[in-house]
């Protein structure tokens, strides 16, 4: 999913008919896999983002941001003339919580020829562009490429990808059909053959299912300025670290990167405070 994010830092979310002045603002390319790709690139890797971008005039803002972040675009719908999804995001300064108005990728499905996975070490799927996700996951499985699933929320058709997934990194809002607790989520995903599962819970510990063993990983306690994109950043960092270390260590290191991002406004400023690893 590729969006244009308009991000505002505010004292409080405005009430009905209220006009407020933002304390700060920024514009960046957004979307789960997009922010993950930016993170993966920042940590020293080559990242290719597969999504429907198109040819609308405002897309130069998306492309300029991703070029600066050294992320390569594989456009699923290069001739599309409609506007990309645009998100307006209000971040409350005192809590770091965000309010988001967004369009998802439902209106921006692409059907272009998919790129080869030659030389690719890991694939992250965010649940958008499902047809492309299934095709890429099938190709990755055949080549022995690790597949990470970003389970931000349940999306219709996710079950087509699940049999191919190696690592499921889910949010506390990820509830497959008939699941209402983390225990049920672990059971559901493990029945699909996924034996390395994590559920992130913001500032609370990460719940983990690791080859049948349940455990928890504590996350750093930081002064939060902005939680926007923290989960996406976690996923991108996890993809970086899982290529170097074991599952639990990769989760722990990814949590440090995500926590650091929460101390900065927007989805890019945190990169100015860290060195590439």
Number of strands: 12
Mass-distribution shape: globular
Tell me the radius of gyration.
Answer: 18 Å
Order of helices and strands: EEHEHEEEEHEEHEEEHH
Judging by the overall fold, what is the CATH architecture? 3-Layer(aba) Sandwich
Instruction: Flag low-confidence runs.
Output: none
CATH superfamily: Ribokinase
Percent helix, as a range, is 25-40%
- How confident overall, as mean pLDDT? 93
Strand content: 15-25%
- What separation lies between the terminal Cα atoms? 26 Å
Tally of structural domains: 1
| Broad CATH class | Alpha Beta
Which strand order do you get reading across the main beta sheet?
7-8-9-10-11-12
The name CATH uses for the topology is UDP-N-acetylmuramoyl-L-alanine:D-glutamate ligase
Helix count, DSSP H or I runs of 4 or more residues: 6
Largest sheet: 6 strands, mixed
Query: Structural class of the secondary structure composition?
Result: alpha/beta
Keywords:
25% strand, alpha/beta, 6 helices
Quickly describe the structure.
The chain has 277 residues and is α/β, with parallel strands linked by helices.
Kindly describe this structure:
This protein is an alpha/beta fold and 277 residues long. The chain has a 6-stranded mixed beta sheet, sandwiched between helices. It has a 4-stranded mixed beta sheet with strand order 2-1-5-6. A two-stranded parallel ribbon has the order 3-4. The protein contains 6 helices and 12 strands. The longest helix has 15 residues, at 247-261. It is globular, with a radius of gyration of 18 Å. The two termini are 26 Å apart. It has helices at 32-42, 59-68, 130-143, 182-191, 230-242, 247-261; strands spanning 3-10, 24-30, 47-51, 71-75, 86-92, 98-101, 122-125, 146-151, 167-171, 196-201, 204-210, 213-217. It has a single domain (33-57, 73-80, 112-273), classed as Ribokinase (UDP-N-acetylmuramoyl-L-alanine:D-glutamate ligase, 3-Layer(aba) Sandwich).
């Amino acid at each position: 999913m590729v969006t244009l994010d308009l991000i505002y830092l505010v004292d409080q979310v405005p009430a009905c008919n209220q006009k407020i002045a933002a304390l700060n603002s920024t514009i960046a390319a957004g979307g789960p896999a997009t922010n993950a790709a930016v993170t993966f690139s920042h940590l020293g890797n080559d990242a290719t983002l597969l999504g429907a971008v198109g040819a609308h005039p405002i897309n130069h803002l998306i492309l300029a941001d991703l070029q600066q972040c050294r992320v390569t675009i594989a456009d699923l719908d290069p001739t599309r003339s409609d506007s990309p999804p645009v998100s307006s995001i209000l971040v409350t300064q005192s809590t770091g919580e965000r309010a988001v108005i967004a369009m998802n990728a439902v209106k921006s499905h692409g059907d272009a020829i998919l790129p080869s996975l030659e030389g690719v070490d890991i694939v992250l799927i965010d649940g958008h562009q499902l047809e492309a996700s299934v095709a890429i996951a099938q190709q990755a499985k055949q080549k022995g490429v690790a597949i990470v699933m970003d389970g931000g929320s349940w999306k219709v058709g996710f079950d087509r990808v699940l049999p191919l997934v190696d690592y499921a990194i889910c949010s506390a809002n990820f509830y497959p059909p008939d699941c209402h607790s983390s225990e049920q989520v672990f059971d559901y995903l493990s029945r699909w053959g996924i034996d390395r599962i994590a559920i992130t819970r913001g500032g609370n510990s990460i719940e983990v299912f690791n080859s049948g063993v349940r455990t928890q990983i504590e996350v750093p306690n930081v002064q939060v300025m902005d939680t926007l994109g923290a989960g996406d950043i976690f996923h991108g960092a996890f993809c970086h670290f899982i290529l170097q270390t074991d599952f639990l260590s990769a989760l722990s290191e990814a949590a440090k990167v995500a926590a650091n991002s929460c101390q900065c406004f927007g989805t890019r400023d945190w990169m100015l405070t860290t060195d590439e690893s």
